[in-house]
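Hi R.,

Here's the chain you asked about this morning:
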Amino acid sequence: MVAEPDDTFIGTVNEDWAVESMAGDIFLLGSHSWRIRRVEPGVVRVGDAGDTPPTIPFWLGEAPARTAELSVEVSELRRQVDEHLVAGDPDAARRWLVEAGIDPAAATMIVDYLAVGRAVLGVMPTQDHLVLERFFDDTGGMQLVVHSPYGGRINRGLGMALRKKFCRTFNFELQAAATDDAIVLSLGPHHSFPLDEVPRYVSSRTVHDTLTHAILDAPMFQARWRWNLNRSLMVLRYRGGRRNPPPIQRMESDDLLAAVFPQAAACQDNIVGPREIPDHVLVRQTIDDTLHEALDVDGLAALLARIESGAVTVHCCDTTEPSVLAHEIVTARPYAFLDDEELQNRRTNAVHLRRGLAVELSSIGALDPEAIERVHAEIVPGPSSADDLHDLLSAAVVVAAQEAWRPLWAELVARGRAQALERDGAEVWCATEAVELARGAFAGDDAAVVKALRGHLELCGITTTEELAARTTLPAARVAWGLAALQQDGFVLQGRYRVGAEGPEWVSRRLLARMHSYSRRTRRDSVEPVTSQDLMRFLLRWQHLAPGTQLAGEQGLLAVLEQLQGWQAAAVAWEPELLARRLRRYDPAWLDRLCHDGHVAWLRLTPRAMDDPDVVTAPSKATPIAVVLRADLPWLLAAARGESAPAEPAVGACAEAVEVLRTRGACFALDVATATRRLPDDVERGLWDGVARGLLMSDGFGAIRAKVAGRPMLVRPPRLARIGRQPVRTVAPAGRWALVPTEPVDADRDELAEAAAEQLLNRWGVVFRDLAVHDPCGLPWRELQWALRRLEDRGLVRGGRFVHGRSGEQYALPAAVEQLAHVRRAPRTGERVTVNATDPLNLVGLLVPGGNVASVRTNTVTYVDGVVVDASAHDAGAPVRDAL
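And the predicted structure, written out as tokens:
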């Protein structure tokens, strides 16, 4: 029930005695206190209690669970998305979610989230396919996650039943938690078992009895016991007209439990075997409430029966890191805990979680083959002296004869420290002091077999029963028994770790933990921060300026403009310096076609500040303009200008041109001249004055080319008389002129920041504060940072440390991260690239050392392998003047 602090809301209570006892109580709802201030039969009225502390105690160990019907729908959504993912068509999954009424951005995030989870687990967890996932934490322990989208009530029951079985098997209390979609059991370094045995730990025939004993020490049982004592008036909330303090009520409840159910409060040292549950009405009622309200024992029994019949399959996997579907349960809050351990002491705190969604779906979660080979190479025995060989023989008990070690062996034999034994016609070596142990292993002694296998497992890494039998010359049956004993001790783990493994493999727990660590480190090394020099090499490739990275054709030009839109450079520099350097055999007709088709336009995004709006400025080649895609123009203007509007002149050619365009719409320059009846020079000066003010824009590059070439846009004044008129000289088409749109963009501030952040990522690949401030996007870094964080939460952007020496948060596109790693590993070949000073990649003084090079079209910067070797500033001593 929800209410504002000034409101009063009503709640119904079934028992009249509860209504009477609740009068005057204060409870906490959210972060606000509420007082039960008026009592009616069966009804309580609740009002604001201000800052008064609550008097009704509450427990954080339990939360309402998802309904069974909603759990079925969640499982069905996963199944439907999984069908599209298996078919290799994630776009179809997104369309299906959108058609179901889900926002497109949310649909994309759902599909990406489930795709990454499925890539790690190998199967999508649904109500027909449960998944057992196991991974190491940072302490050397392991976490077992059961992915079961059956809702919290069934998952709590399954978690508590598994916890009880593990306690009985290993004699060790486990931490556990359960949510609506998963269960986690925190295993210590001594727990070792094959995952495929876990489904058989709990049976549908015995689960009721198992849960009955499992709940006796659970907080949910204690809470319901006190509640039943209050309901039955065995423990009063009021006594003698005064409130009975909650601590006193708790003590009285504990005393009654000790009287009615002595073994529930007895010392655990004196309890042997399962506790006998008394046939008492309060005990029966509390157990029934716990099993059927907090838990769903009947639903759990039905689930276990379906697992036993094969209707529900269980998939097992060992992963190097938790899947994204396990993140929720690993970071679960106290309401999900199935034990009474505090949050700060949870073993799940030692689990390292990946930030964002993974992009390398083919390898995420699996052991890296290079990590396996690296560990195997580290443990290969290579004795360099007779003493080293003796230590090896002592650890392994028996070792097959090795010709490479024969000189060292002969030295040991001569010193009486080693002996040779014969086993099935083969020579076997052992240390003198381990001869009896070796003979015991050959005779089948259990302790000797375990000792020999333990030593060899430390030397061979991932192996099989047959391989161990060959290495130790022991029978395969005895090796299998010894491995089971070592698994019970937690020393060895069983699974399938190598690609193409056909049967179960065995590996020492210590070595497997090292393989997992190396696998994670390998992936982290792939995003190791780069130096500023390598970042500059990357940017030259990202923006297609490095040799061999240029694009071609109209589509290439469109891709370049998508990167550069929003960047303002001198009008004269755009085609020869910014576009032609990024495109092979650049053809101006490509740009003309894009402009005349309505895809591209150019304008000045940030108007020049003018003290007097009626002052007319002369046209200039240095006018800073931006070339933009028309589809993105509204948000680019909103980001660059905010709520400010450019100043309009009251008189003059510019004012008349603006009025004509406002009345008639987009016009050619000749139409403007005809309407204003002004001379061509006046019209041209007025149009460029409008560009400088940010009032006018054009859809053709002919005006800029005419200005660069020194030709007028208009070749004759408009006249009505035709006799004696000179022939029209043809010039490049200048395109039509129009007013810059002033309509407000249909987006809030957050959406605008996300659009600007995506543009920065497209331009730079990697974004951090220094680059964002350098880029004229128009929005403050704090808003861009919030937008980048939201994009990271959706899995579209990766956060981390990508560049050395840059403070603050850094974000990058997944494709940029991969290219950064490639550039970092690529050799430096003396690659030479020259850029114009107006180019975005004039980053001297910002990313690379050196004095700032003024953004003047006559200046250039030359990089060799990302290092500045020449910064030619031809007019560096003159002030930089923007003529418009």
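Residues 68-86 form the longest helix (19 residues).

Let me know if you need anything else.
M.
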